Amino acid sequence: MTNNTPNTKAVEVNGIRFEVRLNNSVIPLPPREEEEEVPGEEEDIFGKEDDDDTPGIEFEIIITNNTSETFYFAFHNNLIPKLMTSDDQTFYGGHVTDWMRLPVESDFLLSRPGETLTFIQSAFLYYTGDDFRLGFDVLEGGAWTLYEINNPGTYKLQFTYESVAPVIKALIEKGTERKKIENIWTGVVVLPVLEFQLVDESI
């Protein structure tokens, strides 16, 4: 893979088509600039995505409802990323957060029969002084962070979409009242693997 071309793959489960797309399959690594450490201060990963030197990455999750039923699809904490090397070695990682919020109405996207919806999952690369890390924003709070990315090369990314609650009470936007969201699609879907290339532009 040498061209910066879109990468898209899809899978269909019980009449619901899940497509995952990465528009830029060649991603530059951020500069290897070590930050000055302050004694007693913990690393703040949540401000990394706003750094001008931090490459922004967007994955599109495209869902097409090929059934005769209407569903909501939840996205407040429903995507779990898995990063692998080209020979399927898995990177360590986990969900970290210093804040959480309740689900809000806009976290749930409605799809009627025949309709398609798109959710954009943002991600960001940053350098810690020891390794590169890949973070994925979580709407409910915090980020999934994958560690010990040390070299440019070809990598594989796979999302798992997991939704277990058919009914959730969500906050109405900019308010304290809660609204019952019903007919939420439930299930676990392992989305197709996407390949992308990390390149070191300083070489």
What does this structure look like?
- This protein is mainly β and 203 residues long.
- The protein is 0% helix and 49% strand.
- The chain has one domain (7-27, 45-197).
- The chain has strands at residues 7-13, 16-22, 26-28, 56-65, 71-74, 79-85, 93-96, 108-111, 116-127, 132-137, 143-149, 153-163, 168-171, 178-181, 187-190, 194-199.
- Strand 10 (132-137) and strand 11 form a beta hairpin.
- It is globular and about 50 Å long.
Please compute the radius of gyration using only Cα atoms. 18 Å
Q: Regions with pLDDT < 50 over 5+ consecutive residues? A: none
Q: What's the total count of β strands? A: 16
Overall geometry comes to globular
Overall pLDDT metric: 86
Number of domains: 1
Share of residues in helices: under 10%
How much of the sequence lies in strands comes to: over 45%
**Biggest pleated sheet:** 7 strands, antiparallel
In the sheet with the most strands, the strands line up as 1-2-4-9-10-11-7
Structural class: mainly beta
Strand and helix order: EEEEEEEEEEEEEEEE
- What is the distance, rounded to the nearest whole angstrom, between the alpha carbons of the first and last residues? 18 Å
Number of helices: 0
